[in-house]
Structure formats: C-alpha cells, structure tokens
Amino acid sequence: MEREMLLLGLLRNGEMHGYQLNDYIERTLSFCADVKKATAYFLLDKMEGRGWVTASEHREGNRPPRKVYHLTPSGEAEFQRLLRENLANFASARSAADIGLAFLGALEASEARELLLRRREALASELDSIRAAPRHGSGVQLLIDHQINYLDSELRWLDGTIATLGKGTAGSRHKEKR
Predict the structure, then answer these.
(1) Closest by Cα among 148, 169, 170, 152 to 31
(2) Cα separations (Å) of 113 from 44, 84, 121?
(3) Can you say whether the dihedral through the CA atoms of 81, 82, 84, 90 is positive or negative?
(4) CB 3 within 8 A of CB 33
C-alpha cells in the first residue's frame, strides 16, 4: 500500500498526468521508491476504479491526449488512513544482499574483503548521489535525511567489517564443507 500512498500523496499537491508523477518519483524518490511506469499506471487505474482519483483527458497542441489525475475526497481519506498506518508501523530493514554475510567464512579473508570493498564503493556512490540531491522544503527532506542516515550507518558498519577482515580475524576461520 506504500505505492498507493505515494501516488495519492503526490496528487494532494495538485493534479498531475502519469508522466509527471513518474518523472517526479524517478528524479526525487528513486532511492527509496521502486515504482515502475507500468506499475504506476496500473495503480492509477485501480485507484480510479476505487474512486480515490478521477481522470480527465487533456490535449496540448498536436500531442496525444493525456490522462490528468485528480485526488477525490475518498482518495484523501484513504491517503490519511494509509499515512497513519505507515507512520505507526515498524518494518525491519531487510536486504537480500545481506544473506551472503552469513557465509562470509566460506571465502578467504582477502577475497571477502575485496568483495566488500566493491560493495562499499557502490554504497558510497549511492550515498553521494542522495547527498547531492537538492534540498526540499517539505516532508520529502525527512525521507532523504532518513535515507542518508541509514546509508551512513551501513557505511560505518561496512568499514568496520572490512577493517576486521584486513586484520585476518574474520572470513576464512573455517571453510564450509560442500
């Protein structure tokens, strides 16, 4: 329901057509929201069917007509419900990328360290791109700041783990049998 809340929340700021919604998500929220264009259009149609949004067609010049979406009072009520539910609930940050950490000992410490250094490089790059994002005067900045703090914490943990591997105190203490 987070994707529906996102779309409804964006429409609270005013009517938008699907391309505008997708462009905003891609430019501003791609680090935390995985909403593909096809998914966004599917959800908009679904929300229209539920009466949360209405759509009207607008044409600009010779361009094909575009559906412009408007939030309805029912959509506002659903947004408020979803927002309260989202803010009150805790969801653990689980990552499929972390599963390999359970088996780090199956590799020589030097190889494990090299692989984690590659991970660190990707993480630092992601963090740099989020830090470079323009400041927002809204709740979006809270989301960006939260992500920055999360990634900072992950980077510190990773640096400590890499340092431990560099000392040879983790990693290849025991090779797992196949």
Answers:
(1) 148
(2) 45, 42, 12
(3) positive
(4) yes
Average confidence (pLDDT) over 68-88: 95
In this prediction, residue 19 has a pLDDT band, given cuts at 50, 70 and 90, of confident
* DSSP β-bridge partners for residue 66: 58
pTM passes above 0.70: yes
Q: How many CB atoms lie within 10 A of CB 165?
A: 24
**pLDDT value of residue 153:** 95
* Radius of gyration of the CA atoms of the chain, in A: 22
User: Residue 168: pLDDT band by 50, 70, 90 thresholds?
Assistant: low
> Residue 154 has what pLDDT?
93
DSSP the chain: -HHHHHHHHHHTT--EEHHHHHHHHHHHSTTT----HHHHHHHHHHHHHTTSEEEEEE--TTSPPEEEEEE-HHHHHHHHHHHHHHHH-------GGGGGGGGGGGS-HHHHHHHHHHHHHHHHHHHHHHHTSPP-SSHHHHHHHHHHHHHHHHHHHHHHHHHHHHTTSSSTTSPPP-
